[in-house]
Amino acid sequence: MTEPIDAVLAEFRRMTEVSLTRIEGQLALLLQRQDQQERRADAHDARLVVLDNRLDTVERTQVTREDMDKRSARTIAWMGVVVAVVSILTATATTTIIAIVN
User: Fold this and answer.
1) CA 16 → CA 2, 9, 21, 22, 35, distances in Å?
2) CA 46 to CA 40: how far, in whole Å?
3) What are the percentages of helix, strand and coil residues in the chain, rounded to 5?
4) How far apart are CA 59 and CA 46, in angstroms?
5) How does DSSP assign 19-74, residue by residue?
6) What confidence category does residue 6 fall into, taking pLDDT thresholds of 50, 70 and 90?
7) Residue 96 burial by CB count (10 A; 0-12/13-18/19+): exposed, middle or buried?
8) CA 68, CA 72: separation in Å to the nearest integer?
9) pLDDT for 9-45, tens place per residue?
10) Sign of CA dihedral 64, 65, 67, 72
11) How far apart are CA 100 and CA 3, in angstroms?
């Protein structure tokens, strides 16, 4: 019981169309996923540029421990000078006041 050639060709054509439709659907899905991945990659690239710029700014303006130690040492030295000058002025003023009073 062989089927007529037209029936076999029709069945083959139907199977081919179904398979091509399935392949087209899968291809469309893959293209959609690729577009989404490209958008995500572009967003990540933009974020990396922003973070890289922030890092450059931080590296240019960062204050190291050594810088802080130097600043502290200068501040302490100046405070010592100020205290010494105030002490000398106070002693001079006190001596002058005592000399005037006596």
Assistant:
1) 21, 10, 8, 10, 28
2) 10
3) 90, 0, 10
4) 20
5) HHHHHHHHHHHHHHHHHHHHHHHHHHHHHHHHHHHHHHHHHHH---HHHHHHHHHH
6) confident
7) exposed
8) 6
9) 999 999 999 999 999 999 999 999 999 999 999 999 9
10) positive
11) 139
Tokens standing for 3? Answer: 């089927």
Length of the chain: 102
Tokens of 48: 């990396």
Which pair of structure tokens corresponds to residue 14? Answer: 């139907």
| Residue 11: alpha-carbon gap to chain centroid | 60
C-alpha span between 34 and 52 (Å, rounded):
26
